[in-house]
Amino acid sequence: MSASAAAVLDLAWPPGGHDPVLSALAERHIGRDGALDFASAIRDPLLGRLAMVSSFGADSAVLLHQISRINPEMDILFIDTGKHFAETLDYVDTLSTEFGLANVRFIRPDAGLIALEDSRAELWQKNPDLCCMLRKTFPLQDALSGYQSWITGRKRFQGASRAALPFFERDGDHIKLNPLAKTSAEDILSYARRHDLPQHPLVERGFLSIGCAPCTRAVKPGEDPRAGRWSGLNKVECGIHLGPDANFARQSLAARGDGI
Fold it and tell me: Which residue segment(s) compose the domain that 150 sits in?
């Protein structure tokens, strides 16, 4: 294994652990310069059936454009929480049409569970973690049951828990591929300009990281790009990257007797 591949792979291993699949993927697709050969990686049979999960947010066009040039037939999973900005839903249509994405799937929460736990649509105010679980984490868990691997658009420059993000990581039974892990904000902007990609309509209004409408605000000058997400709360992730912890959360909720 090259030194660069080993260095990136180390970030994907749990302490004292070893994953031969991640090791093989790193050996095959991470060069000596530490760069990922994305086009080659997504064709690797070790990944099995593969989907991309996209928020169709502020930076999503770059990775979706790359996917469209490699495999426009790939399944793209968009979690439609029922709380998105109207601009985001319009943006899904814009990028799907312009990029020729043939298989964008809308993943929605269980209507019965939402009626039981959030009948007044106020859960985001009282318990945002549970709101994210019901509207994002659980639906994605179910949608991913037919896949062995999935692609995310996370990047190290987004900070917090993403600062040491590897290209390949284990997420329970799944492998996650983070092709933009080492990409800078300048790289994203340069690519978007070079290919004249459509911008999310809210970006020009200061929304640099875009989630559900009730829990997202515009970012102030000098703030971290994700500062507008769950502002004022001790929360930095929606929960879809919790891995096995998400299963525990689901089991705990079911134990209350709600019959999930």
Answer: 48-258
